[in-house]
Amino acid sequence: MNQNRRQPIVNCLLIVSCMTAAVAAHFTATDAKACGGFFCQQVPIDQAGEQIIFRKDGIFVTAMVLIQYTGEAEEFSWVVPVSGIPELSVGSDAVFASLETSTRPQFILETNGQRCPSDDGDFNFGGGGATSDSADDADNGVDVLERLAVGPFDVEVITSNDAEALATWLGSNGYELTERGEELIGPYVNEGKNFVALKLRQDQGVGDIEPLIMRCQTGNATIPIRLTAVAAQDNMGVLVWLMGDSRAVPLNYLHVTPNYTRLNWYAGTFNAYASYQGLITAAMDEAGGQGFATDYAGTDFDPNTSLPTVETYTDELVYLAGFPDDADFVAELANTFVFPQDKVLAILGRELPLPEGEDSFIYSVPELLNDTFTAEQLADARMQIVVEINETIVKPLENALAMFAGKPYMTRMYTTLSADEMSLDPSFSFNPDLEDQPMTRRARMDVDCNFGATTWSLTLGEGTGRNGELVINGSGDPPGFSAPTIDQESMWRSERVDTSGPPVTETLRAFGVARVIGADSSGGSNGSACGVGLFGCGGGTVGTLLLTMFGLGLLKRRTHP
Predict the structure, then answer these.
(1) Comparing C-alpha atoms, which of 507, 539, 531, 532 is closest to residue 418?
(2) Strands of 451-548, DSSP E
(3) Among 154, 194, 342, 406, which residue has the least CB neighbours within 10 Å?
(4) b/e string for 537-549 if b means 16 or more Cβ within 10 A?
C-alpha cells in the first residue's frame, strides 16, 4: 500500500439552487425534510434557503437545481413548471458552496486613531435516452411529452390544459397534492407551462441526489415564487446568480440598496455578512416586500480559480489506480474527502452491499473488507466503482462548470420573502448601461481622544453607494463587537430598472448624521427600526429552505397502512 499519501484539502459542501422557471420540491414521508442554507459553519446559520444559478445565451436560459433532501428514497418526488421541453442533465453540488463563498459581499472597516487610555473595557479593531408516451395519458387530459433517465432520476415531462386533470394525474402517479397544491398549479397550467416531474430511480438512494440542469428556450429567467406561498415561513432567503453579457436586473421587483449605516461593521466581515442578511430583510420589508439587492456585479470573478476543478477528481482517480490491492483501493476511497462522501457511500453500497446489520465502517478497513467480501467480489466492484465515479461525480462537475464557460458577466442578487409577498413571480434580464457593483463594501472609523474623552465617527466608503458620507458621530467607547442602535430606516434607495438606461428612483432617503452617546443614539430621520446587530433584527430566519416550501404546499403526506 502506498505510504506517501498526500492529505486532501477538505471542503465542506452543502448547497441549494433553482431553475429557469423555478422549483417545486415534493416530499411525502412524515420525517422527510429538504435541507439547504447551512454551509458547515463556513457561513452564518441564517443563510439563503434558495440558491439559483441562471445563464442566458441568446434565446436560451440554463439553470442548475440542487435538491437537498432527507427521508426515504422511495418517498422523494419533485415537480417544477418549465417553458417548453427543456434539455436535461445533472450537475454538481460542489460548485455551489465555492460559488457562494467566492462571491459573498465582503465588509472592510478601516480604523484610524486610538481611544483614550482611561476608557474602560477592551477595544479591538479588528442523460439517458428519451421516449415519448403521450398517448398513454392523453385520455386523462395529460400528455407525457418525454420519459427519460437523467443521472439518478426518472424524469417525465408532462403538459395539460386542465389543472384538475393534471392534479389527478400527479396524484395517481405518486405526487399526492393537497387541495391548496391543486389551486397553486392552476396559474401555471393557464400560462401554458409544461412540468418536469422526477423521482429517484429504483437503484438510487438519497445520497445520489444531484443538481438538475435545465436548458430552456425562454425570454427571461423567472422564479415561479407563487407556488411557495402556501407553506412559506417568514423571510425566506433567495440568492440568485445570473450570468450573461452585462449586469442583471430585476424587471418586475424593485432594486433596493440598504442603509449601510445600520450594518454591524465592527466585528469582522463574517459577522458583518450575518448582519447584512438581517439588514436586507428589514430593507425589503420597507420597500413593500418585493425587491432584490445586488450583492455583486462584475467580471472579476474567475471560475478557474474559485470553483472546484475536474482535474482534482481525475488526479484522485489516477492516485487510487496506484493501489494494486482491491481492498486497499476501496478503503482509501472510503477514507478520502476528495469526492463527496455521501456519493462515495452510495456507490459502495450499490457495488459492495453489506450484510444486514453491518456498518459502513467496514469500507474503510482493508482487513474487514477481506473478511466480508471475496477477492472476486472486490475486483469486480472496483471496476464498477471507477465507472460510477466518472458517471455520477466527474461528469456532473463537467456539466456544472460548463455554465461558467467564457467567463461571462456575473450578477449576484439577494432578497428575503414571506408568504404574503409571494404574489408575483420575479423576472430578470440584463442592462448594459449599469455600472459594476463591487463585492467589497468599505467604511472608515476615525477614533480620537480629546481632553480625556474618546470620540469616533463612521464614514461609508466604496461599494455602499454613499462613498465619503459621514454617517455616525459617537462619543465614548467605539463599538467593539455589536453595532449601536441607529434610529434610521433600513432602506436607503429603491428603484425600477429596465433592460437599458439608468434606474428610475422611487424612494431616496436623506439621513442625517446619527449621534451615538454611549448606548444612546439619534438618527435624524423619520421612523425607527430595531438595531441590526450581529444577527440582525428579529422576525424569522433568513435561511429556511425554499425548496421545502414548494413541496410542503403542493403535496400531502402519504400514509401507510
Answers:
(1) 539
(2) 453-460, 470-475, 491-496, 504-508, 514-517, 520-522
(3) 406
(4) beeebbbbbbbbb
Structural domain tally of the chain?
A: 1
Question: Is residue 380 domain-resident?
Answer: yes
Report if residue 508 sits inside a domain. Answer: no
Contact 67, 547 (CB under 8 A): yes
Measured CA to CA, the distance from residue 461 to residue 468 in angstroms comes to 6
The answer to whether residues 240 and 413 touch, using CB atoms and an 8 Å cutoff, is yes
* Full DSSP string of 147-210: EEEETTEEEEEEE-S-HHHHHHHHHHTT--B-HHHHHHHHHHHHTT-EEEEEEE-TT--GGG--
Q: Are residues 341 and 333 in contact, defined by beta-carbon separation less than 8 angstroms?
A: no
Four-CA torsion 152, 154, 159, 160, nearest 10 degrees: -130
**DSSP 8-state code for residue 6:** P
3-class SS at 135? helix
Radius of gyration of the chain from its Cα atoms, rounded to whole angstroms: 26
Least confident of 225-234, 377-386, 397-406, 425-434: 225-234
Cα–Cα distance for residue pair 519/10, rounded to 1 Å: 43
Beta-bridge mates of residue 412? 241, 296
Q: Residue holding cell 456544472? A: 400
Q: Rounded CA gap, 528 and 523, in Å?
A: 8
Phi, psi for 555 (deg, rounded to 5): -120, 140
User: Cα–Cα distance between 4 and 7 in angstroms, integer?
Assistant: 9
CB 148 within 8 A of CB 127: yes
Mean pLDDT across the stretch 434-444? Answer: 98
CA gap 272, 363 in Å, rounded: 42
Question: What is the pLDDT averaged over residues 222-226?
Answer: 83
Tell me the residue range of the domain where 351 lies. Answer: 308-402
Is 349 contained in some domain? yes
Say how far apart CA 45 and CA 63 lie, in whole Å: 25
- Higher-pLDDT residue of 199 and 553 is 199
Q: Has residue 18 got a pLDDT over 70?
A: no
Residue 73 burial by Cβ neighbours in a 10 Å radius (0-12, 13-18, 19+)? buried
DSSP 63-123: EEE---EES-GGGEEEEEEESS--EEEE--THHHHHHHHHHS-EEEEEEEE---TTS-S--
DSSP state of 397: H
Q: Is residue 322 part of a domain?
A: yes
Residue type, 196: V
